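Hello support,

Our group uses your service weekly, and this is the first time we've seen a run hang past the timeout. The protein is Tyrosine-type recombinase/integrase. I'm not sure whether the cause is the sequence or the server load. Input pasted verbatim:
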Amino acid sequence: MTRKEGVIKKRCGCRDPETGKQLGDRCPKLRLLLKNRKGEPKVGKDGEPLWQWNPDHGTWWARYSAPPGPDGRRRQPWLGPCDTEDEATKALRKALVQLDEGASVPDQKLTFGAYLDQWIKGKKSLKPSTLESYVETIELYGKPGLGHLKLVEVNETHLDHLYTAIGQINNLPEGECPSEMLRRLLAARSLAPKIHLKEGERVGLKRQKPLSASRIHRIHRVLSSALGTAVKTKKINRNPAEHVELPRVPRRRPLVWTSERVARWKKTGKIPGKVMVWTPEQCGHFLDIAEERGERLYSLYHLTATRGLRRGEVCGVRWEDSDLDEAGTLSLLESEEEDDDGLKSDASQRAVTLDDTNIRLLKTWRATQRRERMAAGADWTDTGLIYTAENGSALREEYVSERFAAIVKAAELPPIRFHDLRHCAASMMLVAGVDMKVVSATLGHARYSFTADTYTSVVPQVARAAAEATTAIIPRKKAQ
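Update from on-call engineer: The timeout came from a worker crash unrelated to the input. Re-ran successfully.
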């Protein structure tokens, strides 16, 4: 059936038994001959047999003429598959309208894998560690799982099957055969190059533990970002990743290193939880030891422990974004690190107000950095960053964490991660009576409710004060 500037046809995936090529609209099963009451084929006035489309075979497609591509070759994209002729007609009309309005024509031959390669090449602003994680997601999951599909064909079901297969890595139920999708993912992991963990240590990807729900969320965010860009550049009409249901990520609430937990840790070596928080006394001991040792990055650790900056933020903040003499603030313009709730939003871009101690420490550090610059001479790298290596280059974030761990060990304190200094800052702000909304804004959380839900139960002093206040407000005849 012909439409203005387009054609509506039925097609199928049947193949020629001799050549193996798809028959497309030439499959004999697509058409049914019309017969009269005697069972004889009906013929038209021209003597040709009359036929109708077979409702039980094939799907509807639309095709139209598009402007030539970059190579100058003629283009006739297909739209489909559609369940009905009316749906194909509407798709054709929409495409022709977009074409008249100057919209680009989706490349029906572009595979998802080829598109991901194009997309990652354009991510020039990512820092190396983030780019490395994006490439790993593409090479280990996106391309082996769905890379063979046409970009325009990728849908919610494909993504759902991909995430299900990712969840079965090192986690396949006993007696269940791996799906074709899982086989492709496992093959990609077996061929992947070894990854860097620590200086001088390299290990492969053959880990025995299943991938966590939070890891699947991170993979999803990368693929969703790529598909979102495809929508913006009009390669596809919608982002199928927006409607995929993901596994629930369990909330890891911080636990305080109480005296009982410390005693048990010293006895067994076991850490009660993944996210641990020091008491104000423990945090103070850490800062005292760092200062006594003459730790070069002492002011960085003090700033993090009191103002709750993320590692990427404190390593990436620039002198030009500081105002130490008037407003007493640091402007944090961007961060590529995710928070514990797996979210990062515009709230991450914020101005952090500094206290007198942090201002004094930052001014002292600036003087130290100037002396290092003079000593380095022509070898100095002018990055403009507040915290740098001795030659002015950017600090390696892993080094900041490694130095932190060394100080913790020297102080004989119960272990926490460097990121947990951020949680220490939040809990101490609450102990000091800072309003929860101010705490949330200082940390740059996307949601106030997340701050309240995470930290309300962390600080015993706050909970005890609330309990005492509740009992005290009730009038009684006899003093209890």
